[in-house]
């Protein structure tokens, strides 16, 4: 088989990133027919179906390594052009896709991006997922880097420990008096309404088991927004585990109390990124490590 066509690889990346052939065509300034022809030609060259034609389009198992390759080539090409032409010469945007868990995105991660030197032609495509699931997007080639709870390196990636995000169990004083007058007991937890980010979020249940020694199934409200979940706690709708960076303000102001003083849950976080000699990844990694040294346990 001859070498892979770079235009076809870029088209594959666009189809998966944008979710459809039509959207990829708009991004690449092509007709949908031209996009379809490029994907078909790439699939014929590889001898495998590379894209599942669903909404949104996703890469197949065979397409994932090529999707990762397309992203790596785009990143290295943009850096090479910047070095050859100078940072102000243009050459088109390259997006660096990073997946981050919601609590990191709401606390320390923006500060890491702010520490990066301003670089012409670079934009970030931030995705959000639970820390126990972010590595999946690295595996399928959708993202360049991830904040994850997975300590084992994804194939083709480097991994570094960042530290641990500490969580504390919070509610309003009134909620605590109504539901936890006898303390954080299994009986109280079983009946007290619990606020959970989404169905992937198991932080609360891990804490319940660690403190009570039992796997319990309390009534749950789902609130897929970090600010929204915090506000629901303040309004007395339930209790939840809150990152200490967010919890401190509510505790200091007396809006909330710690339901289990002296107990907390530490969630180790890791930084995984493509194993690639890239200035962008080197700078991003340095910024992430600098901020987490200051903010995580």
Question: Can you walk through the features of this model?
Answer:
The chain is of the alpha/beta class and 297 residues long. The chain has a domain at 165-267: 3-Layer(aba) Sandwich (D-Maltodextrin-Binding Protein, domain 2). Helix content is 45%, strand content 20%. The chain contains 13 helices and 11 strands. The chain has helices at 6-18, 21-28, 32-46, 63-85, 102-106, 109-114, 135-139, 173-179, 186-191, 203-212, 226-234, 244-253, 279-295, and strands spanning 51-52, 58-59, 94-100, 122-128, 145-148, 157-171, 194-196, 220-222, 240-243, 257-258, 265-274. Strands 3, 4, 5, 6, 9, 10 and 11 form a 7-stranded mixed beta sheet that branches. The chain has a two-stranded antiparallel ribbon with strand order 1-2. Helix 1 (6-18) crosses helix 3. The radius of gyration is 23 Å and the shape is elongated. The model has no long low-confidence stretch (mean pLDDT 90).
Top keywords for this entry?
297 residues; alpha/beta; D-Maltodextrin-Binding Protein, domain 2; seven-stranded mixed beta sheet; two-stranded antiparallel sheet; DNA-binding; activator; transcription regulation
Name of the CATH architecture of the domain at 165-267 = 3-Layer(aba) Sandwich
First-to-last CA distance = 50 Å
Q: Over all CA atoms, what is the radius of gyration? A: 23 Å
H/E element order? HHHEEHEHHEHEEHHEHEHEHEEH
Q: Which structural class matches the secondary elements? A: alpha/beta
Number of beta strands: 11
Assign the CATH superfamily of the domain at 165-267.
Periplasmic binding protein-like II
Question: How much of the polypeptide forms β-strand, as a percent range?
Answer: 15-25%
Instruction: Give the fraction of residues assigned to helices.
Output: 40-55%
Could you say which overall geometry the principal axes of the C-alpha atoms support? Answer: elongated
Mean pLDDT: 90
Biggest sheet layout: 7 strands, mixed
- Give the quaternary arrangement of the chains: single chain
Number of helices: 13
Unreliable residue stretches: none
For the record, the CATH class of the domain at 165-267 is: Alpha Beta
* CATH third-level topology of the domain at 165-267: D-Maltodextrin-Binding Protein, domain 2
Keywords: Activator, DNA-binding, Transcription, Transcription regulation
Organism: Micromonospora tarensis
Protein name: LysR family transcriptional regulator ArgP
Domain HTH lysR-type: 4-60
